[in-house]
Amino acid sequence: MPASTRELYQRHVLNTARRSLALARGEGARVWDEDGKRYLDLGGGIAVNCLGHAHPRLARTLADQAAALIHTSNLYHNAPAAKLAERLAGLLGGGKIFFTNSGAESNECLLKLARKAGDPAGKFEVIAALQSFHGRTFGGIAATGQEKMRAGFGPMLPGFIHVPFNDLAAVEAAMTPRTAAVLIEGIQGEGGVMPARADFLLGLRRLTRERGVMLLYDAVQCGHFRTGCYQSWQRILEGVPGGDGFRPDALSMAKSLGGGFPIGAAWISEEYENVLGPGSHNTTYGGGPLGCAAANTVLDVIEDENLAANIRARGDQLLAGLRPLAGSHGITDVRGFGGMIGVVLGHEGAADLATRLAEAGLVVVPAGTGVLRFLPPLNVTAAEIDEGVAIMWKTLG
Ligand SMILES: Cc1ncc(COP(=O)(O)O)c(C=O)c1O
Protein backbone atom coordinates (compact mmCIF):
# COMPACT_ATOMS: atom_id res chain seq x y z
CA MET A 1 0.00 0.00 0.00
CA PRO A 2 1.46 3.43 -0.89
CA ALA A 3 2.29 5.72 2.04
CA SER A 4 -0.45 8.15 3.04
CA THR A 5 -0.01 11.92 2.83
CA ARG A 6 0.38 12.04 6.62
CA GLU A 7 3.03 9.31 6.57
CA LEU A 8 5.00 11.09 3.83
CA TYR A 9 4.89 14.32 5.86
CA GLN A 10 6.12 12.49 8.94
CA ARG A 11 9.00 11.00 6.99
CA HIS A 12 10.04 13.96 4.84
CA VAL A 13 8.64 17.30 6.06
CA LEU A 14 10.14 19.17 9.02
CA ASN A 15 7.92 18.89 12.02
CA THR A 16 7.54 22.64 12.61
CA ALA A 17 3.74 22.88 12.70
CA ARG A 18 0.87 21.11 14.43
CA ARG A 19 -0.84 19.81 11.29
CA SER A 20 -4.26 18.19 11.31
CA LEU A 21 -6.42 17.48 8.24
CA ALA A 22 -5.13 16.27 4.86
CA LEU A 23 -7.08 18.53 2.50
CA ALA A 24 -7.66 17.67 -1.12
CA ARG A 25 -9.90 20.34 -2.68
CA GLY A 26 -12.09 23.30 -1.95
CA GLU A 27 -14.92 25.42 -3.30
CA GLY A 28 -15.93 28.72 -1.74
CA ALA A 29 -16.03 28.27 2.04
CA ARG A 30 -16.03 24.45 1.72
CA VAL A 31 -13.05 22.11 1.78
CA TRP A 32 -12.88 18.34 1.45
CA ASP A 33 -10.28 16.07 2.98
CA GLU A 34 -8.70 13.09 1.25
CA ASP A 35 -11.41 10.79 2.57
CA GLY A 36 -14.09 12.97 1.01
CA LYS A 37 -15.31 14.48 4.28
CA ARG A 38 -16.65 18.01 3.79
CA TYR A 39 -15.86 20.94 6.12
CA LEU A 40 -17.04 24.51 6.45
CA ASP A 41 -13.79 26.51 6.28
CA LEU A 42 -14.08 29.67 8.39
CA GLY A 43 -10.31 29.71 8.99
CA GLY A 44 -9.61 30.96 5.47
CA GLY A 45 -6.08 29.55 5.31
CA ILE A 46 -5.19 31.92 8.20
CA ALA A 47 -6.71 35.03 6.61
CA VAL A 48 -5.41 34.27 3.11
CA ASN A 49 -8.27 32.76 1.08
CA CYS A 50 -10.26 35.98 0.93
CA LEU A 51 -12.26 34.79 -2.11
CA GLY A 52 -12.72 31.30 -0.68
CA HIS A 53 -11.37 28.26 -2.48
CA ALA A 54 -11.19 27.85 -6.25
CA HIS A 55 -12.79 31.18 -7.15
CA PRO A 56 -13.34 30.81 -10.92
CA ARG A 57 -12.04 34.30 -11.77
CA LEU A 58 -8.86 33.82 -9.76
CA ALA A 59 -8.32 30.35 -11.24
CA ARG A 60 -8.80 31.74 -14.76
CA THR A 61 -6.40 34.64 -14.17
CA LEU A 62 -3.71 32.27 -12.89
CA ALA A 63 -4.13 29.97 -15.89
CA ASP A 64 -4.17 32.82 -18.44
CA GLN A 65 -1.22 34.66 -16.89
CA ALA A 66 0.77 31.42 -16.53
CA ALA A 67 0.26 30.80 -20.24
CA ALA A 68 1.51 34.32 -21.05
CA LEU A 69 4.36 35.14 -18.60
CA ILE A 70 5.03 33.65 -15.15
CA HIS A 71 8.28 35.25 -14.10
CA THR A 72 10.60 37.99 -15.31
CA SER A 73 12.84 38.83 -12.26
CA ASN A 74 13.12 42.31 -10.87
CA LEU A 75 15.29 43.44 -13.80
CA TYR A 76 12.28 44.11 -16.02
CA HIS A 77 8.92 45.86 -15.97
CA ASN A 78 5.65 43.96 -16.25
CA ALA A 79 2.12 45.31 -16.71
CA PRO A 80 0.33 43.38 -13.88
CA ALA A 81 2.83 44.74 -11.31
CA ALA A 82 2.56 48.28 -12.67
CA LYS A 83 -1.23 48.14 -12.46
CA LEU A 84 -1.25 46.60 -8.98
CA ALA A 85 1.19 49.20 -7.62
CA GLU A 86 -1.00 51.98 -9.05
CA ARG A 87 -4.09 50.51 -7.38
CA LEU A 88 -2.50 49.89 -3.97
CA ALA A 89 -0.87 53.32 -3.87
CA GLY A 90 -4.22 54.78 -4.94
CA LEU A 91 -6.00 53.03 -2.06
CA LEU A 92 -3.43 54.49 0.33
CA GLY A 93 -3.50 58.00 -1.13
CA GLY A 94 -0.03 58.11 -2.74
CA GLY A 95 3.41 56.73 -1.93
CA LYS A 96 5.12 53.75 -3.52
CA ILE A 97 5.11 49.94 -3.39
CA PHE A 98 7.88 47.36 -2.89
CA PHE A 99 6.72 43.87 -3.83
CA THR A 100 7.64 40.84 -1.72
CA ASN A 101 6.55 37.21 -1.38
CA SER A 102 5.31 36.96 2.22
CA GLY A 103 4.33 38.93 5.28
CA ALA A 104 7.68 38.45 7.00
CA GLU A 105 9.49 39.83 3.96
CA SER A 106 7.17 42.83 3.85
CA ASN A 107 8.06 43.56 7.46
CA GLU A 108 11.78 43.12 6.68
CA CYS A 109 11.35 45.89 4.12
CA LEU A 110 9.72 48.14 6.73
CA LEU A 111 12.49 47.45 9.26
CA LYS A 112 15.26 48.08 6.74
CA LEU A 113 13.46 51.24 5.64
CA ALA A 114 13.31 52.49 9.24
CA ARG A 115 17.02 51.81 9.82
CA LYS A 116 18.05 53.43 6.53
CA ALA A 117 15.89 56.49 7.19
CA GLY A 118 17.21 56.77 10.74
CA ASP A 119 20.84 56.05 9.94
CA PRO A 120 22.06 59.62 9.32
CA ALA A 121 20.77 60.63 12.79
CA GLY A 122 22.04 57.45 14.50
CA LYS A 123 18.48 56.18 14.99
CA PHE A 124 17.90 52.43 14.73
CA GLU A 125 15.66 51.33 17.60
CA VAL A 126 12.18 49.99 16.92
CA ILE A 127 9.48 49.96 19.58
CA ALA A 128 7.05 47.07 19.06
CA ALA A 129 4.21 45.60 21.11
CA LEU A 130 4.09 42.69 23.49
CA GLN A 131 1.99 39.81 22.09
CA SER A 132 2.65 41.06 18.54
CA PHE A 133 3.57 38.79 15.65
CA HIS A 134 5.62 40.00 12.68
CA GLY A 135 6.93 36.83 11.03
CA ARG A 136 9.66 34.21 11.39
CA THR A 137 12.71 35.82 9.78
CA PHE A 138 15.41 37.15 12.12
CA GLY A 139 13.96 40.66 11.83
CA GLY A 140 10.49 39.25 12.29
CA ILE A 141 11.23 37.32 15.50
CA ALA A 142 13.23 40.23 16.91
CA ALA A 143 10.23 42.50 16.32
CA THR A 144 7.70 39.94 17.58
CA GLY A 145 6.71 40.52 21.19
CA GLN A 146 6.48 36.85 22.16
CA GLU A 147 9.47 35.24 23.85
CA LYS A 148 8.53 31.74 22.68
CA MET A 149 9.20 32.73 19.03
CA ARG A 150 12.75 33.76 19.92
CA ALA A 151 13.72 30.90 22.22
CA GLY A 152 16.94 29.23 21.09
CA PHE A 153 17.60 31.59 18.18
CA GLY A 154 19.73 34.17 20.00
CA PRO A 155 21.52 36.43 19.86
CA MET A 156 18.68 38.54 18.51
CA LEU A 157 18.98 41.40 16.07
CA PRO A 158 19.55 44.31 18.46
CA GLY A 159 17.48 47.45 18.83
CA PHE A 160 13.97 46.14 19.56
CA ILE A 161 12.02 47.27 22.62
CA HIS A 162 8.66 45.77 23.54
CA VAL A 163 5.92 47.58 25.42
CA PRO A 164 2.31 46.67 26.23
CA PHE A 165 -0.09 47.06 23.29
CA ASN A 166 -2.57 49.95 23.47
CA ASP A 167 -0.36 51.71 26.06
CA LEU A 168 0.67 55.09 24.66
CA ALA A 169 2.46 56.16 27.85
CA ALA A 170 4.63 53.02 27.65
CA VAL A 171 5.58 53.84 24.04
CA GLU A 172 6.48 57.39 25.03
CA ALA A 173 8.54 56.18 27.99
CA ALA A 174 10.44 53.74 25.74
CA MET A 175 11.42 56.45 23.23
CA THR A 176 15.07 57.51 23.15
CA PRO A 177 17.08 59.70 20.77
CA ARG A 178 17.85 56.42 18.96
CA THR A 179 14.20 55.53 18.25
CA ALA A 180 13.68 55.13 14.51
CA ALA A 181 10.18 53.65 14.42
CA VAL A 182 7.18 52.27 16.23
CA LEU A 183 5.74 49.07 14.71
CA ILE A 184 2.22 47.83 15.46
CA GLU A 185 -0.44 45.52 14.08
CA GLY A 186 -3.82 47.25 13.69
CA ILE A 187 -5.40 44.15 15.19
CA GLN A 188 -3.02 41.69 16.82
CA GLY A 189 -3.79 38.39 15.12
CA GLU A 190 -1.56 35.61 16.44
CA GLY A 191 -1.58 37.42 19.78
CA GLY A 192 -5.32 36.73 20.17
CA VAL A 193 -7.37 39.11 17.94
CA MET A 194 -6.73 42.24 19.97
CA PRO A 195 -7.70 45.45 18.14
CA ALA A 196 -5.80 48.70 18.64
CA ARG A 197 -7.94 51.27 20.45
CA ALA A 198 -8.83 54.44 18.55
CA ASP A 199 -7.16 56.73 21.10
CA PHE A 200 -3.99 54.60 20.93
CA LEU A 201 -3.80 54.92 17.13
CA LEU A 202 -4.40 58.68 17.18
CA GLY A 203 -2.02 59.18 20.10
CA LEU A 204 0.69 57.14 18.39
CA ARG A 205 0.35 59.14 15.20
CA ARG A 206 0.64 62.42 17.10
CA LEU A 207 3.56 61.22 19.24
CA THR A 208 5.57 59.73 16.36
CA ARG A 209 5.10 62.92 14.31
CA GLU A 210 6.21 65.11 17.22
CA ARG A 211 9.36 63.00 17.74
CA GLY A 212 10.26 62.48 14.07
CA VAL A 213 9.78 58.72 14.46
CA MET A 214 8.26 56.52 11.73
CA LEU A 215 4.96 54.76 12.36
CA LEU A 216 5.03 51.28 10.77
CA TYR A 217 1.77 49.34 10.44
CA ASP A 218 1.67 45.58 10.01
CA ALA A 219 -1.51 44.94 8.02
CA VAL A 220 -0.52 41.44 6.91
CA GLN A 221 -3.43 39.77 8.70
CA CYS A 222 -5.87 42.58 9.48
CA GLY A 223 -5.61 44.46 6.15
CA HIS A 224 -7.06 44.09 2.67
CA PHE A 225 -10.75 44.58 3.54
CA ARG A 226 -10.78 41.93 6.29
CA THR A 227 -12.42 44.33 8.73
CA GLY A 228 -14.93 45.59 6.16
CA CYS A 229 -12.66 48.55 5.36
CA TYR A 230 -9.54 48.45 3.20
CA GLN A 231 -7.35 48.98 6.26
CA SER A 232 -8.19 48.27 9.89
CA TRP A 233 -7.57 51.84 11.06
CA GLN A 234 -10.37 52.97 8.76
CA ARG A 235 -12.73 50.68 10.68
CA ILE A 236 -11.33 51.39 14.15
CA LEU A 237 -11.35 55.17 13.61
CA GLU A 238 -14.73 55.34 11.87
CA GLY A 239 -16.63 58.34 13.21
CA VAL A 240 -13.79 59.23 15.61
CA PRO A 241 -12.83 62.93 15.47
CA GLY A 242 -9.44 63.26 13.76
CA GLY A 243 -9.66 59.70 12.45
CA ASP A 244 -9.80 60.74 8.78
CA GLY A 245 -6.28 62.14 8.96
CA PHE A 246 -4.69 58.92 10.18
CA ARG A 247 -2.17 57.23 7.92
CA PRO A 248 1.01 55.37 8.92
CA ASP A 249 4.36 56.08 7.25
CA ALA A 250 4.70 52.57 5.90
CA LEU A 251 2.59 49.42 5.84
CA SER A 252 3.17 45.72 5.26
CA MET A 253 0.72 43.44 3.47
CA ALA A 254 0.51 39.81 2.30
CA LYS A 255 -2.06 37.05 3.02
CA SER A 256 -5.36 38.22 1.40
CA LEU A 257 -3.46 40.35 -1.12
CA GLY A 258 -3.08 37.32 -3.40
CA GLY A 259 -6.13 35.36 -2.26
CA GLY A 260 -3.93 32.28 -1.83
CA PHE A 261 -1.20 33.01 -4.33
CA PRO A 262 1.91 33.94 -2.30
CA ILE A 263 2.54 37.66 -2.72
CA GLY A 264 3.32 40.44 -0.27
CA ALA A 265 4.03 44.13 -0.49
CA ALA A 266 5.29 47.06 1.51
CA TRP A 267 3.71 50.45 0.97
CA ILE A 268 5.89 53.48 1.76
CA SER A 269 4.55 57.03 2.08
CA GLU A 270 5.72 59.90 -0.10
CA GLU A 271 7.97 61.23 2.68
CA TYR A 272 10.08 58.06 2.76
CA GLU A 273 9.68 56.73 -0.77
CA ASN A 274 13.23 57.62 -1.81
CA VAL A 275 15.00 56.15 1.24
CA LEU A 276 15.56 52.71 -0.31
CA GLY A 277 17.33 53.54 -3.56
CA PRO A 278 18.74 51.36 -6.35
CA GLY A 279 20.59 48.30 -5.03
CA SER A 280 19.60 48.87 -1.40
CA HIS A 281 16.94 46.15 -1.17
CA ASN A 282 15.45 43.55 -3.49
CA THR A 283 14.05 40.07 -4.02
CA THR A 284 14.09 37.88 -7.14
CA TYR A 285 10.41 36.93 -7.17
CA GLY A 286 8.93 40.19 -5.86
CA GLY A 287 6.46 41.81 -8.25
CA GLY A 288 6.28 38.81 -10.57
CA PRO A 289 3.53 38.95 -13.19
CA LEU A 290 1.70 35.83 -11.96
CA GLY A 291 1.29 36.99 -8.35
CA CYS A 292 0.45 40.54 -9.37
CA ALA A 293 -2.16 39.36 -11.88
CA ALA A 294 -3.71 37.27 -9.08
CA ALA A 295 -3.73 40.26 -6.72
CA ASN A 296 -5.35 42.46 -9.39
CA THR A 297 -8.12 39.89 -9.83
CA VAL A 298 -8.58 39.67 -6.05
CA LEU A 299 -9.12 43.45 -6.00
CA ASP A 300 -11.46 43.25 -9.02
CA VAL A 301 -13.62 40.59 -7.34
CA ILE A 302 -13.69 42.44 -4.01
CA GLU A 303 -14.96 45.53 -5.86
CA ASP A 304 -17.33 43.79 -8.28
CA GLU A 305 -18.91 41.55 -5.62
CA ASN A 306 -19.03 44.30 -2.99
CA LEU A 307 -17.15 42.10 -0.53
CA ALA A 308 -16.17 44.85 1.92
CA ALA A 309 -19.85 45.39 2.71
CA ASN A 310 -20.47 41.65 2.77
CA ILE A 311 -17.75 40.82 5.29
CA ARG A 312 -18.80 43.72 7.47
CA ALA A 313 -22.34 42.36 7.65
CA ARG A 314 -21.20 38.75 8.03
CA GLY A 315 -18.82 39.83 10.82
CA ASP A 316 -21.67 41.52 12.67
CA GLN A 317 -23.72 38.34 12.23
CA LEU A 318 -20.86 36.16 13.50
CA LEU A 319 -20.31 38.41 16.51
CA ALA A 320 -24.02 38.37 17.31
CA GLY A 321 -24.03 34.58 17.09
CA LEU A 322 -20.91 34.02 19.18
CA ARG A 323 -21.11 36.84 21.76
CA PRO A 324 -23.74 35.09 23.89
CA LEU A 325 -21.12 32.35 24.46
CA ALA A 326 -19.07 34.77 26.58
CA GLY A 327 -19.61 34.04 30.23
CA SER A 328 -20.32 30.35 29.68
CA HIS A 329 -18.23 27.32 28.61
CA GLY A 330 -15.17 29.08 30.07
CA ILE A 331 -15.34 31.69 27.28
CA THR A 332 -14.41 35.14 28.57
CA ASP A 333 -14.73 37.36 25.49
CA VAL A 334 -15.66 37.45 21.80
CA ARG A 335 -14.04 40.34 19.91
CA GLY A 336 -12.88 41.68 16.57
CA PHE A 337 -14.33 43.12 13.37
CA GLY A 338 -15.67 41.71 10.11
CA GLY A 339 -13.72 38.66 9.05
CA MET A 340 -11.39 38.68 12.05
CA ILE A 341 -13.18 37.48 15.16
CA GLY A 342 -11.56 35.93 18.24
CA VAL A 343 -13.23 33.73 20.84
CA VAL A 344 -11.24 34.07 24.06
CA LEU A 345 -11.38 30.75 25.88
CA GLY A 346 -10.03 31.63 29.30
CA HIS A 347 -8.06 28.36 29.20
CA GLU A 348 -5.28 26.82 27.13
CA GLY A 349 -7.45 24.51 25.06
CA ALA A 350 -7.65 26.33 21.69
CA ALA A 351 -5.94 23.57 19.71
CA ASP A 352 -8.08 20.83 21.27
CA LEU A 353 -11.27 22.78 20.64
CA ALA A 354 -10.21 23.40 17.01
CA THR A 355 -9.76 19.62 16.64
CA ARG A 356 -13.22 18.91 18.08
CA LEU A 357 -14.75 21.53 15.78
CA ALA A 358 -13.04 19.98 12.76
CA GLU A 359 -14.47 16.60 13.75
CA ALA A 360 -17.86 18.34 13.75
CA GLY A 361 -17.15 19.77 10.27
CA LEU A 362 -15.94 23.32 11.06
CA VAL A 363 -12.42 24.58 10.32
CA VAL A 364 -11.21 27.51 12.48
CA VAL A 365 -7.73 28.55 13.61
CA PRO A 366 -6.22 28.81 17.08
CA ALA A 367 -4.38 32.03 18.00
CA GLY A 368 -1.80 31.04 20.57
CA THR A 369 -3.18 28.55 23.07
CA GLY A 370 -6.18 30.43 24.43
CA VAL A 371 -8.05 32.05 21.53
CA LEU A 372 -9.95 30.60 18.58
CA ARG A 373 -9.97 32.68 15.42
CA PHE A 374 -12.65 32.95 12.75
CA LEU A 375 -11.04 34.31 9.55
CA PRO A 376 -13.69 33.49 6.93
CA PRO A 377 -13.44 34.37 3.25
CA LEU A 378 -14.79 37.83 2.47
CA ASN A 379 -17.51 36.23 0.31
CA VAL A 380 -18.82 33.93 3.04
CA THR A 381 -22.62 33.73 3.01
CA ALA A 382 -25.14 34.39 5.79
CA ALA A 383 -26.16 30.71 5.71
CA GLU A 384 -22.54 29.60 6.14
CA ILE A 385 -22.08 31.91 9.14
CA ASP A 386 -25.28 30.52 10.71
CA GLU A 387 -23.99 27.02 10.10
CA GLY A 388 -20.59 27.81 11.70
CA VAL A 389 -22.23 29.39 14.74
CA ALA A 390 -24.52 26.37 15.13
CA ILE A 391 -21.56 23.94 14.99
CA MET A 392 -19.76 26.02 17.60
CA TRP A 393 -22.73 25.97 20.01
CA LYS A 394 -23.37 22.26 19.47
CA THR A 395 -19.72 21.31 19.95
CA LEU A 396 -19.43 23.34 23.16
CA GLY A 397 -22.55 21.54 24.36
C1 LIG B 1 0.54 40.33 11.52
C2 LIG B 1 1.42 39.38 10.79
N1 LIG B 1 2.59 39.82 10.33
C3 LIG B 1 3.43 39.00 9.66
C4 LIG B 1 3.11 37.69 9.43
C5 LIG B 1 4.06 36.80 8.69
O1 LIG B 1 3.55 36.53 7.43
P1 LIG B 1 4.14 35.31 6.58
O2 LIG B 1 3.78 34.06 7.30
O3 LIG B 1 3.48 35.45 5.24
O4 LIG B 1 5.62 35.52 6.51
C6 LIG B 1 1.89 37.19 9.90
C7 LIG B 1 1.53 35.77 9.71
O5 LIG B 1 0.68 35.21 10.36
C8 LIG B 1 1.03 38.06 10.61
O6 LIG B 1 -0.15 37.63 11.08
Q: Can you offer a commentary on this structure?
A:
37% of the residues lie in helices and 18% in strands. With 397 residues, the chain is an alpha/beta fold. It has two domains: 5-55 and 306-396, Alpha-Beta Complex (Aspartate Aminotransferase, domain 1); 58-304, Type I PLP-dependent aspartate aminotransferase-like (Major domain) (Aspartate Aminotransferase, domain 2). The protein has a seven-stranded mixed beta sheet, sandwiched between helices. Strands 1-2-3-15 form a four-stranded mixed beta sheet. Strands 13-14-17-16 form a four-stranded antiparallel beta sheet. A hairpin with a 2-residue loop joins strand 1 and strand 2. The chain is globular. It binds pyridoxal-5'-phosphate. Pyridoxal-5'-phosphate binds at residues 46, 102-104, 107, 133-135, 185, 189-190, 218, 220-221, 254.
